[in-house]
Design brief:
Ubiquitin-like (UB roll), Uridine Diphospho-n-acetylenolpyruvylglucosamine Reductase, domain 3, five-stranded mixed sheet, binds FE2/S2 (inorganic) cluster
Amino acid sequence: MAETIEIALSVNGQNRRLRVRTDQRLVDLLRGDLRLTGTKEGCGKGECGACTVILDGEAVNSCLMLAYQADGTAVQTIEGLAVGDRLHPLQDAFVEHGAVQCGICIPGMIMSAKAHIDLTGQAIPSDQARSVLAGNLCRCTGYSKILAAVTRAAAPPAPPATAPDAVAPPYFRPRSLEEALEILIQRTGEVRPIAGGTDVLVQAKDGKTSAEALFDITAVPELRGIEDLGDHIRIGAATTHTEILGSRLLQKYCPALPMACAYVGGPQIRNRGTIGGNLAHGSPAADTVPPLYAADAKVEVVSVSDRREVVISDFFTGPWQTVLAPDELIVAVKIPKRGNVRGIFLRLGQRQGHAIAKVSIAVALVFRDGKPDWARVALGAVAPTVIRAPDTERALLTGGYEGLRRAMEAVRNEVRPADDLRSTREYRREMAAVLLERAVRRLADA
Ligand code: FES
Ligand code: FES
């Protein structure tokens, strides 16, 4: 039986102190306890966006957050938009354009759009509207009216909402690395950390793990942020995909990584999902991992008694398996800085967004006198773990069209794809070569 703990948060501008079950999701708190039923639950797995709320200014999926993870935050739901009888300009625009086809998807669409226009105070440009709503599905295909509405509504930028101080007990929400490691050592094997929750809470929904056996590490300052440490960049494990996507430092020294983060889910998933979570999950198709292989990254891991750095290619031992011991926590990823590096991440999936890669590739090259002088090629979803392709890299270093032709041949031999529901072995092998060619041509032209 899950415990109940006290949390403090602001909901639609009102400070609240509430008791929540430790396995309760934010969507359940909003809909069940607070009767804010404008927030809907469609899929419960981060795929439809019906449960979107704004948390500290960002759109998030409330089905993929534990309620106590909202401790010390300001949450806004669809009920908080209208002022008296006056609708928010976005709500007006949806009415005016006849874009209120159903009550399941539309509140989430409005919240996603609002999070975006709160930042800019301007209507969403039409070339950005699809990406702003990439985490929201409409099953009746009424997209044209929805897109018309979100591209015409503007409102003044919203000042940051104020939130009360967090009060959740450190036992569930540690505030320091020491506290987090202490929980891990005292309850080894019983509990596991949760950060963005974008994988763990999907597993909980599927009955593969218990939401009771989690503790939240996102309030640990040592796990946050992107730092320039001279010869390398340190990315805290709880840094989100959105933060990586916006990092100029990473765009310069590891360009493939922000590109890969852009493919992760929709905005709601990127606002919560973390790089450490992506590593700990251990999927051979994880988007952020090939860029880390291509950057010679290291994973910093700590326990109460030890701190070690693991070369990224030694971190994974098989599909969904890593070298992490039960009492260890990933604290950071370290990326060496390499001058003049060009990088790219490409992938093929069933569709552009919200789909697991069938094949992905990260290529990093340094050119000297028009010829590759240093090369890294890493591929995802074509072997039991992400792999580097050393023969392919050597072939690229010979330069020119002949070097590229040999590299394409080499990569076909170096991948070890399997047949599965998403694709065939032959297709993956051939697409690895196609993606390599595209990647190298684009880098050469950059
Ligand atoms: Fe579908 Fe949350 S209910 S994303
Ligand atoms: Fe709900 Fe289209 S708006 S299915």
